[in-house]
Amino acid sequence: MNDVLTNKEDICGNWLQRYTKTPLSDFADLILLTNFNNYLDIFCTQMGIPPVGFDANMRCATAKGITMINFGMGSPNAALIMDLLSSVKPRAVLFLGKTGGISKKTALGDYILPLAGIRGEGTSNDYFPPEVPALPAFMLQRAVSTALRDSGMDYWTGTVYTTNRRVWEHDQKFKEYLISTRAMCVDMETATLFTCGFYNHIPTGALLLVSDNPMTPEGVKTEKSDNHVTANFASTHVRLGIEALQFVQGDRKTLRHLKYEW
């Protein structure tokens, strides 16, 4: 690769290698995304490979045709990783994220299969006008649904509201606004990933784990409650993500009909 970077493909390829400390040739064409180092460690354990070090800004590991990357937290990082992944042209990208429940229906440990995202973060406005919806690749979400079904897991479907605000649990006006959107949950990445995945012609999906219920004071995430969610649900969350992508891996028809032409 040239030292002088003059186009998007060269820039993204160079930066993906720099952030992950991984050659482009080592990336699989099926990608799992996460925000958490322990998810990456769980992935290594479940796939039977040694744990990876901490020398990269974006830790990643590859096994059995799947690469998992911890891209960090927040909408700007979500946009960044989708841009960088355009350099390796993955067949599918699946996000395993934690989310705060807005709906009173959801409880800790519930799974939400988002059918759409509300673009409240602003980052994605640099990719499409605000009126363009944030939608996942339907056939990828179908693969996740199949993995959940085959594991006997119940799940919710609905809309996720994505915001750039990390601390809002004290803001009653913002909570009332969230309720008015009829979203089921809130996070900081999903709508951006859907939008930037579409922009970069990458089929993108998500499986979200309810890690807190921040609409009530007693439901705000704490270190104790987060440790409880991690200990009881993280391993299954990662396993479901792996199984969903293995379904895609074993049945190429799952994504065959997706087109990204405007």
Count of separate DSSP helical elements: 8
Which structural category fits the helices and strands? alpha/beta
| CATH-scheme architecture | 3-Layer(aba) Sandwich
Contiguous uncertain segments of 5+ residues: none
Rg value: 18 Å
Q: What's the CATH superfamily, by name?
A: Nucleoside phosphorylase domain
- What sort of overall outline do the alpha carbons produce when their principal axes are compared? globular
- From the N-terminal CA to the C-terminal CA, the straight-line distance is 30 Å
Count of the domains: 1
CATH class: Alpha Beta
Order of helices and strands: HEHEEHEEHEHEHEHH
Q: Report mean pLDDT, rounded to a whole number.
A: 93
Oligomer status = single chain
Strand content: 15-25%
The CATH topology is given as Rossmann fold
Would you spell out the secondary-structure blueprint of this structure?
Blueprint: H1 8-20, E1 30-34, H2 37-47, E2 60-63, E3 66-70, H3 75-85, E4 92-101, E5 111-120, H4 138-150, E6 156-163, H5 172-180, E7 185-187, H6 190-199, E8 204-212, H7 223-250, H8 253-256
Parallel strand pairs: 1-3, 1-4, 4-8, 5-6, 6-7
Antiparallel strand pairs: 2-3, 4-7, 5-8
Helix pairs in contact: 1-3, 2-7, 3-6, 4-7
Describe the structure.
The structure is a single chain. The protein has 262 residues and is of the alpha/beta class. It has a single domain, classed as Rossmann fold (3-Layer(aba) Sandwich). It is built from 8 helices and 8 strands. It has a 5-stranded mixed beta barrel. α4 links the parallel β5 and β6. α2 packs across α7, α3 runs parallel beside α6 and α4 packs across α7. The chain is globular and about 50 Å long. The two termini are 30 Å apart. The mean pLDDT is 93.
